[in-house]
Amino acid sequence: VINNRVESMWGNDLAVPLSTLPMMYGVESCTLIVQINEEGFDVFVQGQHCARLEHRTPLPKRKGPLFLQFPSSDDYGNPENWMVYRVWWGRKRSMADDLNGVAGVDLYSSVHPKKLFISGLHKLRSDPEVDLRKAELERAFRKYGGPSGAVLVSVQKNSTF
Questions:
Q1: What is the pLDDT of residues 66-100, one digit of tens each?
Q2: Is pLDDT of 103 > 70?
Q3: H/E/C letters for each residue in the chain?
């Protein structure tokens, strides 16, 4: 599974079938290449194109720093052990030639730029009712929130929309 995390919120995951990955059991080390391009991040394992993760936040307008980060622990607080033998930075021709069967390619997940108003709802008179309605609408419309699943929901007291 490939995913992104912004602050403490995970985005929608991209499942990569194990059948598309090269055999790595018993291998002491492997080569992981991540190429950044206009479409997103192309992921290669042992030279094989395994996935494309679309950009989930806008690219910066100007040049800026690039950071390579490895998690020091998993989601449960267990330590992660990494051994990095080499890191290369620079411009290189894209290795993504044949995109057939690559997980994440042609996956429509951009955020829809429109606003949606829902009317005819019962008036809400208390803050707990507002919180409940907001949570219900966020769950109902999450799939339209792009790769992060983020949907901005505004719920007002004493309003029917």
A1: 777 777 887 788 888 878 888 887 778 888 888 88
A2: yes
A3: CECCEECCEECCCECCCHHHCCCCCCCCCCCEEEEECCCEEEEEECCEEEEEEECCCCCCCCCCCCCCCCCCECCCCCECCCCCCCCCCCCCCCCCCCCCCCECCCCCCCCCCCCCCCCCCCCCCCHHHHHHHHHHHHHHHHHHCHHHCCCCCCCCCCCCC
Contact 54, 42 (CB under 8 A): no
Rounded Cα distance, 73 and 9, in Å: 16
pLDDT digits (tens, 9 = 90+) for 48-62: 899 988 888 877 788
Strand partners, 33: 44
Q: Please name the residues in contact with 111: beta carbons below 8 A apart, sequence gap of 6 or more.
A: 145, 146, 150
